[in-house]
């Protein structure tokens, strides 16, 4: 069984999800009426799409984290604070200008610039010193969190969705039949979440293409494998790493704007998304963009289905996935090939 998991990690994850779904279908109580069946189907579909869209948000946060932590070997435990800072900046820009899309640009630039400062003044001086990086970034995270608490207080903030993304859209999934007209009732879902899902897919595909099909991606991977040899060829590897760190931090800022749009921002969200990013990277595989996508999808689905069908054990289910992956495939579901 262990060999099968090692050879077919993605297939094993799919099989495990289907087995869990089958067990739930067997032991779940049967509906008493047609209306009960329709209601349960609607709840299931909503939990499914909520899990997928939450996974898209986790992927946007974890993709930057997997570049910094998994690929560049920099332990940045201030990544959750960068996420929340991007959300607050996006809120201020959208509230002052009314331009939702502009908030993404400003959050990416500001948080990316902060990432440049972190790489240049912190990580460049502590290369290969994981313990020092961990302790220093924990301190930086606490400082950033306190500054944000001082500026924005402990209230909840939510970025208003633009009018052209407001409201639900009908999906081609039938949830019931109207008694009056006999027409089919289709599942409705917020259009903003679907747009964010498509954006996450586009960003993920773009990142994979850059890392695996371009010269900059080749330089990053070569610098991680043998930094001294690459530097001997005349490549200024520190500049490359600063750009990658800035991009990863900027992605966290963009994810903060997205999280502030269809959820909310409040003190404590930085720790939540830092833990989620760690779990996603460990489950998917450090330094792997497809692994981050798969891990984010599994964690998002586990969190949503757990909150609907087993709210007491929702958090336990998330970490149980990580424990199982570490037990059978410690390198992650999608290991990076070098």
UniProtKB/TrEMBL annotation:
InterPro entries per UniProt: ABC_transp_permease, BCAA_transport_permease
Membrane topology qualifier: Multi-pass membrane protein
Q: Predominant location of this chain?
A: membrane
Residues annotated as transmembrane: 12-31, 43-69, 100-123, 135-153, 191-211, 240-262, 274-301, 308-328
Q: Which Pfam families match?
A: BPD_transp_2
GO biological process: what's one of them? amino acid transport
Annotated localization: Cell membrane
Keyword line:
Amino-acid transport, Cell membrane, Membrane, Transmembrane, Transmembrane helix, Transport
Per UniProt, what is one GO molecular function of this protein?
A: transmembrane transporter activity
Domain of life per record: Bacteria
Choose one Gene Ontology CC annotation of this protein and give it: plasma membrane
The similarity annotation says: Belongs to the binding-protein-dependent transport system permease family. LivHM subfamily.
What name does the UniProt record give this protein? Branched-chain amino acid ABC transporter permease
